[in-house]
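All the exercises in this workshop are built on plain-text protein records. Instead of coordinates, the fold is spelled out as a row of discrete tokens. Once this layout is familiar, the rest of the handout is easier to follow. The record below serves as our worked example for the rest of this section.
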Amino acid sequence: MQQDQRKERLITKPLALLTLGHLITDFGQGALPVLLPFLKTAFNLTYTQVGVIVLVQNLTSSVIQPVFGYLTDRVSLPWLIPASVLLAGIGLGMIGLMTSYYALLGVVVIGGLGIACFHPQASKSAHLVSSAATKGRSMGLFSVGGNLGLALGSIAMSFALNLPGELTNTLYFIIPGLVMSLLLYRNLQDISPQEPAVQSAAASHAGSTKGQSLNYGLLAILLAFIFVRSSIHTGLTTYIPMYYINYLSGSPVYASYLLAIFLLAGVVGTYTGASLSDRFGRKTVIMGSILATLPLISLFQYTSGFATLLILALTGLALISSFATTVVLAQEMMPGYVGMASGLTIGFSIGLGGVGATILGYVADHFGIPSVFTVLSVLPLAGLALAAFLPGKLFKR
């Protein structure tokens, strides 16, 4: 009985380390939106060029993740976890030292590759070190690390940019990457099960899903839903600071504060949604998430003061509540290909949100930033239509 209880324990040392690694790795994705207004001024960029920076980060950090997912399904590469955390930190740290737009894009690529290497192997490890009854909550906790990293990255970067040195202070972000990399390396055996254990886990999972075949149509629908959700999320994180700093001529500190509220609420939503999906089903959480987002984005431009903070918090809570749930659903749809499922959901589809950010940059250049939020307010309808076709029943207990 005691052994079974230990197996059901959610927070274990391996999962905690992987979650912390996820937090530090995703610092860059949270810090970049805060950097963008400063980079726009320093390099005299258009909104389209700003969108290209976001696109490059998303392409290198996310879209290519299925490649690493495929590799980790075929070959055990546990060393990728500490190495990628360090690479992500170096890429972020070097941004403020660049003197040209193309050099800037180059270091964004370096940081993006670190992020891309980390997620498939680390999320696969999080899946394997978790018990069958806690898969949703474990992936929720692991995802909380990433989303908390987004929020803390934006807060830390805002603080750094207001110190003497401004953009050159990005160099300090190499330090947490280095420290976390060393910590993960020293605990490599704990965070990444040995090959026999991996095979045993895969065989057990394959046995439990015997007779199930992959439905590529449903998988495509799930990935399309994630693309829509990611376009909304990337659009909001990119253009909330732009809207308040460049359009309303507001304080950069206030803008970063708004972004942090949005991202921190997403942290709460991540774990809440994952926990609810274990009880009520994946489809229920996914549809409820996008449905709740629909009226909230529409209200954003028509509020001020505390109402704006509340709307942003509720939007972050609702929008990201399906994050871990879609990852687990893909893993359940692709038995034996956990790394690939993670790469497709955390990486490829989310990374394509950078394409949406680039398109929104074109919209902002030609029609103004407020029109960006008009487009974003309509996108949840597409997400809701896609979610209706996902497998599962609503309110299944």
Remarks:
- The radius of gyration is 20 Å.
- Residues 171 and 374 are 37 Å apart (CA to CA).
